[in-house]
Design a protein that fits this description.
The structure holds 2 protein chains of 2 kinds.
Chain A lengths: L2 E6 L3 H12 L4 E4 L29 H7 L26 E2 L29 H4 L1 H5 L9 H15 L24 H13 L5 E3 L33 H11 L3 E4 L2 E9 L4 E9 L4 E12 L3 H10 L24 E9 L6 E4 L6 E3 L17 E9 L12 H9 L4 E9 L8 E9 L5 E6 L4 H20 L3 E4 L40 E3 L14 H20 L4
Parallel strand pairs in A: 1-2, 1-8, 2-5, 3-15, 8-17
Antiparallel strand pairs in A: 4-11, 6-7, 7-8, 9-13, 9-16, 11-12, 12-13, 14-15
Helix pairs in contact in A: 1-7, 1-11, 5-11
Chain B lengths: L11 H15 L19 H14 L13 H10 L15 H4 L10 H13 L8 H15 L9 H13 L2 H7 L10 E5 L11 H6 L1
Classes of the chains: A alpha/beta, B mainly alpha.
Chain lengths: ~550, ~210
Amino acid sequence: MDFDAIVVGSGITGGWAAKELTEAGLKVLMIERGRNIRHQQDYATELKTPWEMPFRGEGDQAAYARDYPVQMLNRHFNEYTQGHFVKDSENPYTKAEGTDFNWFRSYQLGGRSLTWGRQSYRWSDYDFAANKRDGHGTDWPIRYADLAPWYDKVEEFIGVSGAAEGLAQLPDGRFQPPMALNPVERHVREVMKANWPERCLTIGRTANLTQAIGERGTCQNRSICARGCSYGAYFSTQSSTLPAAMATGRLTVVTDAVVEKVDYDPATRRVTGVRYLDRTSKTRKSATARMVFLNAGAFNSVHLLLNSASEAMPGGLANASGVLGTHIMDHASTLSAIALMPGFEGRTTTGNRPTGVIVARYRNMEAMDGEGHTRGYSYQGGALQSTWTAGKRDPGIGADLKAKLRQPGMWRMVLVAFADCVPRASNRLTLDPKAVDADGIPQLNIAFAFGKEERAALAQAKADAAEMLTRAGGKVIMGFDQPGAGGSAIHEMGGARMGHDPATSVLNRWSQAHDIPNLFVTDGAQMSSSACQNPSLTYMALTARACDAAASMLREGKL
Amino acid sequence: MDTASPSGGLSRRQLIGGAAILAAVIGVPVAALRGDLLSGDSAPSERRRALLRQVSQIVIPATDTPGAGDVGAGDFVLLALDHGLEKSREPLPADAPAAFARHARKDGSLDQATWLEAELDARAGGDFLAAAADRQAGLVAALDAEAWGEGGKDLPWRTVKALILTGYYTSEAGGSEELAFELVPGTFAPDVPVTPQTRAFSSDWTAVDFG
């Protein structure tokens, strides 16, 4: 064997797998389909001002419409960051009839760890027990206690700033000092606490450092993270896991290499390695290993399993259950309310805090008080002031307009709901039977729709948001109760779900394929439910836990 | 200043050469109009550039800091319209009024700059640029008021005005002299009193995107 382990993908979980496996003494190959991006050297636009950009940071919208029609919808996509996103024109996928799904992707070393929103929340037993409680999906084979020590480990390594609130539904972690609420947020927090004691607005828990860790400096409050951060102040593969893995001397990194298939030996019932297209030399290559970790991103890991079908496994690798590709999810999200917040005109902020606030879930916990739904929703958002762009919306020209735009504008408070997405068999990934990409690989087909549960949750979220902001003295000017397109939350997950039963799930409690002991899937594909808070911290904790288990199994000869 | 004889179809070399001459005469920064970024059929006449410069200056005039025309916002508008900023390359609806349809580009979108030039000349009863400064300002103010009045939301002026503001507040003078700019704040101060001297930050990206 060439390696002890092959890790496919170098994003949030791929970096963690490389770090944990190499630190466990294993010789690891990490394969990344995209280009190399070197920390501190290749963040080309990090220090650019708008007036140094050809389109002032707005970007060439005509070119975006041609080449980035999906990626341009990502809130982190702009002229500075476009190099950190795929060209849709070169990376096609198909959608089933009636599906509205935006698949946001970053194919490069570090993957979406360079562009992620950095919000880092623990899941609770309200989440791990959700499927068992209401009967949707399949029961998770783990609970919070299984993951808690791994959350500790991950938080301490990546650095998560946040405030301890003692909430059962949003467990506290090993936090660095929290970032501060602004005056409007403090006010809304207090009004909520006084009127609804079970509702808690707290500062977003974010993987931006408020205390240095080793070579990584503290956050400079620029809030332009997706350009890349030479301070290493937010967690990314480049800033954090890759240096740790490289320091072991046991990691080999190959970039510009698209893994096409995972090889399976029916005689041993084990995977033996991967085959990949070397885009630099335009040649097809292979590598062997004693185990394989899939960390290509939820949908691409499923795609790889489906594309690795063989005579022995005609429905796809590790798909004896037949559920591979099914039960995909993404949070149903929408702008529940935006309100003008009078009374704070004399206050402002300086610096750009790289996080907003979160209102933790408060529905369907001890009492089932959801109207038409059985799960939770939480809000993220914050209070902000307008600036010169507000001038686009209003009449007026001349010196008066210029004078008006000189000072910070009106405060407004925004609450965006994220609702738990029920796992459904009909929401699934398949290989398109006809369409192939430029390399001849079948395109992924996405079939996805939100259901009545998510719509009911967002309707209640809209009403609640308006009530809370109005009680806080706000004037609600807009709010929605319909979800955006699937994928909008950029929390696509599922497709290789974890479960107790090999007949109804792909992975066991160790993120290990039921059918193939030396195959692990530790990115978002493994998720059996979606919760209503951001999933990346949980992916990392599950990856660290799976790596520990895999290394032990390898040592014990169980793989 | 020569504002006569609107012409189209300049070669890029002519365009860049013309830009240098215009810059020498009226102070438009040459670099503000990147000829290499303009598509083939979008090279503006010098008159159109002068008109956009003047309109930009009317929207954001010089005070204790430069105005929008001074910093090249007019040229930015032309570039931005060419490249679809503010959704400016979306096709006109099939039932678009003739006043817009006659200025359609080949791709079916409205050529807002052509429309603006024709509209302001018509309102001026001839040559907008030859009108007195007060009258020019009055005509632009009237157009602005109509765009926010009843039935005005589809007037292309809203797009042009938005791009003038973008061109100004993302320029070095607009972004860092008129407003404050700090690429590396270092700290976040959550509660600061507003004083008459307080200036908004053009580097408050959340405010720029969502404010």
